[in-house]
């Protein structure tokens, strides 16, 4: 993997998140926090998990410090979450802009409270973007259940609707 490949993946991630967050912005504050089926219990909680995880991986790879995991209570409305999401995306972009292909091979040790694991910067940043794909699908289903279909954000649509970057195709 090379830096332009990661930049393209993050370009897609940003494009897809913008589509998803446009649907989230239409939620009432009550719908945003309404208990629903799923691993995290609400649209808000699922999105806070994704945002916190991405920021955590950015920090581990040398980017802007996150500190403790983000908590859902900090984001009572869709607007509050969307504003923070823009900052987190900016931190990821700053990190990507400063990376070289050699940096992607640097190993990073991390732990979730148990044994320490090691992975490369490239693998961790790729994981962060793909982790978001997984949870975007979950949130899309929750939004549909709440009557707010987010549209399609498959990578194919990104590629065919002008989602080209200098590092891309």
TrEMBL record:
<dbReference type="InterPro" id="IPR034660">
    <property type="entry name" value="DinB/YfiT-like"/>
</dbReference>
<comment type="similarity">
    <text>Belongs to the DinB family.</text>
</comment>
<keyword id="KW-0479">Metal-binding</keyword>
<dbReference type="GO" id="GO:0046872">
    <property type="term" value="F:metal ion binding"/>
</dbReference>
<dbReference type="InterPro" id="IPR007837">
    <property type="entry name" value="DinB"/>
</dbReference>
<feature type="binding site">
    <location>
        <position position="49"/>
    </location>
    <ligand>
        <name>a divalent metal cation</name>
    </ligand>
</feature>
<dbReference type="Pfam" id="PF05163">
    <property type="entry name" value="DinB"/>
</dbReference>
<protein>
    <submittedName>
        <fullName>Diguanylate cyclase</fullName>
    </submittedName>
</protein>
<feature type="binding site">
    <location>
        <position position="135"/>
    </location>
    <ligand>
        <name>a divalent metal cation</name>
    </ligand>
</feature>
<feature type="binding site">
    <location>
        <position position="131"/>
    </location>
    <ligand>
        <name>a divalent metal cation</name>
    </ligand>
</feature>
